[in-house]
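note to self: dont lose this again. the chain is below, predicted strucutre after it. 140 aa total, dont forget to put it in the shared folder this time
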Amino acid sequence: MIEFVFVLIESEEEGNLGAAARALNTMGHTDLRLVRPKADHLSGFAMAMAHGSQHILESASVYDTLADALHDTEIACATTARHRQQKYQYVPIRDLPHLLRDRGQLQRVAIVFGGERSGLNAKDIDQCDLVTTIPQSSLN
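---
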């Protein structure tokens, strides 16, 4: 069974960090990794938004670089709501499980999200193996 890790790069909103922890916990995931966070994931507001998922925030690892956060993953999937001019391997989110299954025995896969205002930059995307598009309506 594949273990998923969720990497948030340059998160700017404490409330979003708490909400992310709550979403991970609701889906049965526990591995949250923060890269260059701009918001405090241990703030009172983040903890309040986590609502029963504070343990996810408390155990979140913080890294200076995306490469460090991906150190033990086999595949990193950058996420975006829009296609970019650069040529990347885009995989619709609904096709991602099939692609991962076809890759064989994977242990750990990273799902990488950018900051709330600007998303992922090209340098961070280039460190990922593929790009998946997640329609914002599917996140509600």
